[in-house]
Amino acid sequence: MIPDYGGACLSNLMPALLGRLEAPLPAWLPPGLAEARQVVLLVLDGLGWQQLRSRSLLAPVMNAAAVRPISSVAPTTTATALTSITTGLVPAVHGVMGYRVAVDSEVMNVLRWTTASGDARSSVPPAEFQPLAAFRGRPVSAVTKAEFASTGFTSAHLQGSHLRGWRVPSTLLVEVGRAVARGEQFVYAYYDGVDKVAHEFGLGEHYEAELSFADRLVERLAAGLPPGAALVVTADHGQVEVGPAVLEVDRDVLDGDVVLASGEGRFRWFHTRSGREGHLAGRLAEAYGHLAWVRTRDEMEAEGWFGGPLVGEVATRVGQVALVAHQPVAFSDPADTGEMSLVCRHGSLTSDEVLVPLCSIVV
Questions:
Q1: Where do the domains of the chain lie?
Q2: CB neighbour list of residue 6: distance below 8 Å, 6 or more residues apart
Q3: Class of the 10-240+351-362 domain?
Q4: What are 207-256's pLDDT values in tens digits?
Q5: How many angstroms separate the CA atoms of 142 and 195, rounded?
Q6: Three-state SS for 292?
Q7: Of all helices (H) and strands (E), which one includes residue 181?
Q8: Could you give the 3-state DSSP secondary structure of residue 122?
Q9: What phi-psi label fits residue 40: left (phi over 0), alpha (psi between -120 and 50 degrees) or beta?
Q10: Can you give the C-alpha Rg of the chain in angstroms?
Q11: Using an 8 Å Cβ cutoff, are 228 and 38 in contact?
Q12: Which CATH architecture describes the domain 246-345?
């Protein structure tokens, strides 16, 4: 699924909500938001549309709300999708092109803002890597985990906002309530529990318990809003249960063409020697085409994967060829030790990963 960058997409959500009082809302937004005096946007990390709808009895509040699917962005990973949500821009423009991207001759973990050399906040200043202000430069309260406040990624995707830290979910409720009580017209909140549980345990009993908890969190947030306010709930991506199906790409397939690998298990980038991308793409397709889409960067740009052409420095952050899983598998990178044991994964463009919910409760 190519994200619907021209319509119901995460990159268009925040601009529509912020501009709801000045311009007509797009038809894909739930009804009632145009008249809302205050809006709280809650992002539930990792909650896919198909996972939510197939467990409707476990999440009655969200499933009873005005709800529809919208698309995430490519790749369907937290670093890219959250930046599209907060900046209102497609990945090709904001340039946060995944969980692990190339910076000079190294690969940087965007969520940790580290390379093999260590902390990269000095060598790769977040405000230079992604210079566009969050929330169109408006002084919005961003209620996110307190331990994320000092990270490079927070600086990159929430710069200019007023950070309000929470350490346990009850304090998320308090911080959102305080921002609303101050009369703020727009409040952003982020909760990561669904994603964490899916990564560690898969989509079974633990996931279902966490989904029920997240639904109660939504209920409590909505109950604390004053008349005339609205709660909008969405997510950054969905999930695919992969388990132990993690494959090492055959070295004979890479055949000396590759100088660096980046990305993640379901959206693996290969950085090639000059002029070798066509050769590598052919060999990857022959070996893994039954499990994954193989595309050159030029092909993905032409097909609209990232919302436009990758301009200048943005193009250097990704490889020339991508291996993008469409079956429940992942492709390993020995240098990426942080994701080896994940049960659920994301990043690709299957409907399980691309489609996320858009729920609205108007008080």
A1: 10-240+351-362, 246-345
A2: none
A3: alpha beta
A4: 999 999 999 999 999 999 999 999 999 999 999 999 999 999 999 999 88
A5: 19
A6: strand
A7: helix 169-181
A8: coil
A9: beta
A10: 20
A11: yes
A12: 2-Layer Sandwich (3.30)
